[in-house]
Write a structure and sequence with these properties.
13 helices; 365 residues; binds succinic acid; five-stranded mixed beta sheet; D-Maltodextrin-Binding Protein, domain 2; 11 strands
């Protein structure tokens, strides 16, 4: 074997070894030196690795955390992610840099969860619905008319329901760091005002990738098209779907007002986020860094709770000002939607199991 071939083989072997370390997400971090070496490799893409190496040499950033999400920066999740990044840097004196990738720039939610499990990214915050394929119990949050208020949902996430779901996530090699709010979903469509389930009959709604949401639309007499968030605007514009459900902040920041005429305040379901990391990665961080990041997460979560309602209220008014025809469901309309939704609860009782269903009885409207 000539020298050139031998050196190419060596480079190849080193590259494969490096990729294995990346896939391990910061495993084997027994000493500080090893941790830092692994973390540098952990940052994964070649451009970041170069930046990191340069930063570490200049005594700046030692740990880079890639945080991918799908919404715009001017939303409750977008703002909280930026606040977490700011606090993480502040509390570690610049040793940690959180790179936030909004707007599905890196991945859609399904891909982000897989990338997190592989250690390619380190944090994500998909809505609970997006975990359906990994942890079916997570779509419990999609049950129509589960919570009466965002405050009540916070209590549930902090109580037995959150504990239960956290246990299920841990079985899938995903660590829950916090639950963040967005708010309640509303309905938009292009056919006419919605006052009762009869008004959504035969409309084709985009839903998140959750079986419960497909069942919900079918129970209302509509049909459902599960679709990644980044594809919804075009699908609405091209008439592939007639309607969708989302929070005011997601509707406004995605400009659905440009392609949808009718907006109905239904508050029928919640969008909340599971802020997650890879447990091997997180537990492989030095303790002082983890403590600082836990503090940053607690403060960013508080910040998210403060801004979520404000942003959604503001965006609601902006949608009305933009010319969407707006109506609120009255009590009779709400009750008709609740009645139409109860079969969905029965359908999923076995999927979620008795323990979880019993926990939910405290909240069910
Ligand atoms: C999000 O708020 O993260 C997106 C939710 C969706 O897919 O509708």
């Amino acid at each position: 074997m000539n020298k050139k071939l031998l050196s190419l083989l060596l480079v190849g072997l080193l590259t494969v070894f490096g990729l294995m370390l990346v896939g391990c997400g910061g495993d084997d971090t027994t000493t500080d030196t090893t941790t830092e070496d692994t973390m540098t490799e952990d940052t994964t893409t070649e451009d970041t690795m170069t930046e990191d190496t340069a930063a570490a040499t200049s005594g700046d950033v030692e740990y880079t955390i890639k945080f991918a999400h799908v919404v715009a920066e001017n939303t409750p999740k977008g703002q909280a992610a930026l606040e977490f990044a700011r606090l993480a840097s502040e509390k570690t004196n610049g040793r940690v840099e959180v790179e936030v990738y909004p707007n599905s720039q890196l991945y859609n939610d399904d891909e982000a969860i897989e990338a997190l499990q592989l250690g390619t990214i380190h944090m994500a915050a998909p809505s609970f619905s997006k975990f359906t394929g990994f942890v079916p119990e997570m779509q419990v949050v999609d049950l129509p008319f589960l919570f009466e208020s965002v405050e009540q949902s916070r209590e549930a996430f902090a109580g037995p329901m959150g504990e239960y779901l956290n246990g299920k996530l841990a079985d899938s090699n995903i660590m829950l760091l916090a639950a963040w709010d967005n708010g309640f979903k509303q309905l938009t469509n292009n056919r006419g005002p919605v006052n009762a389930p009869a008004d959504v009959e035969n409309l084709k709604f985009r839903v998140q990738e959750s079986d419960v949401l497909v069942s919900q639309m079918q129970a209302w007499g509509a049909s459902a098209e599960p679709m990644a968030f980044s594809e919804v605007y075009n699908a609405l514009e091209q008439g592939v779907i007639d309607a969708q459900e989302n929070t005011y902040s997601n509707i406004y920041s995605q400009n659905y007002q440009d392609v949808q005429d009718y907006l109905t305040e239904s508050n029928h379901g919640l969008i909340a986020y599971a802020v997650v990391t890879n447990p091997e990665f997180w537990n492989g961080l030095p303790e002082d860094i983890r403590t600082a990041l836990d503090e940053a997460m607690a403060e960013a979560t508080e910040y998210n709770s403060t801004v979520a309602g404000q942003i959604n209220d503001e965006n609601k008014q902006q949608l009305i000002d933009a010319g969407m025809e707006f109506n609120e469901l009255d009590e009779a309309g709400l009750q008709a939607f609740r009645d139409a939704s109860y079969p969905v609860w029965d359908e999923y009782a076995d999927v979620f199991g008795e323990e979880l269903m019993t926990i939910l009885e405290d909240y069910r409207q």
